[in-house]
Amino acid sequence: MNIIRKIASNQVIVGFFSFIVFWELIHLLVHTHTIPSPLETFTYLITILDELGLHSLGSILRVLVAVSISLLLGIPVGIFLGVNKKINRLFSPFLYYIYPIPKVAFLPVFMLLFGLGNVSKIMLIIWIIIFQMILSVRDGVLQIPAAHFKVMNSFSASIKQQYRFLIIPAILPQVFSGLRISIGISLASLFFAENYATTYGVGYFIMSAWTKMNYEEMFCGIIVLGFIGLLFFKLLDVLEAHFTPWAAR
């Protein structure tokens, strides 16, 4: 019974098996080779693990580079807007206008500016993530009660101490929330970007399998793309629990 309870309490395992059951039901109902059975797909997946691993590594590296650059740029800008209300009022209209625009529409622009290689794809992901990061950090700073700053000032805390002990800890939950949203959007956009002028990446792998009408291979790519997203989300959970124990769910 304890083993069953542990398995039931693990949302990842329950979610995965629920997806497999749903997939099998669709396969049986539709009854077409376009949707292969889970058993056929996972059997085929074992035979192409090396090839698909290389494609997965390419996609993961693109996302990691883009996320790292977005954090390095977005966090300081978000903090700056949060602590400088005049600058925030000046730039907020621009942020509110640019944020809802579908960023994938800029892929042709980045290809013209940065070529057809990795740089244009990484720049697209940065363009997607960075505004989410800026707004999340800025809102985190603005949500800090003014009384907290008064307490810091009453103890003659320096600017450096205010950032270290008040602002940075206060915005970390918003940073992780923004990252979760950004990761999902960036993976969807990466799938789109990897369909152009590239020979590796999970997005390229899926579309290549589709053009060959190899639907087991196509679903293998879809599964791996889901696992990549799950990997990033679980990594964020671990980092959040370590760096923001006070905000643990």
What does this protein look like?
The structure is a single chain. By secondary structure, this protein is mainly alpha-helical. The chain has a domain at about 55-140 and about 175-245. The chain is about 80% helix and about 0% strand. The protein contains eleven helices and no strands. The protein has helices spanning about 1-10, 10-30, 40-45, 50-85, 85-100, 105-115, 120-140, 145-155, 160-195, 200-210, 215-245. The model is unreliable at about 5-10 (pLDDT under 50). InterPro entries: MetI-like, MetI-like_sf.
Please name the defining characteristics of this protein.
249 residues; mainly alpha; 11 helices; 82% helix; disordered N terminus
Q: Could you outline the blueprint of secondary structure elements for this entry?
A:
Layout: H1 2-9, H2 11-30, H3 38-47, H4 49-83, H5 85-98, H6 107-114, H7 118-142, H8 146-154, H9 159-193, H10 202-211, H11 215-243
Helix pairs in contact: 3-11, 4-5, 4-7, 4-9, 4-10, 6-7, 7-9, 9-11, 10-11
Structural class: mainly alpha
Q: Give the overall silhouette.
A: elongated
Number of helices: 11
What's the number of extended β-strand segments?
Answer: 0
Uncertain regions: pLDDT < 50 for 5+ in a row? 3-9
User: What's the story with the biggest beta sheet?
Assistant: none
Transmembrane segments: 12-30, 60-82, 94-116, 122-142, 163-181, 187-206, 218-236
Family: Belongs to the binding-protein-dependent transport system permease family.
Organism: Niallia oryzisoli
Domain ABC transmembrane type-1: 56-240
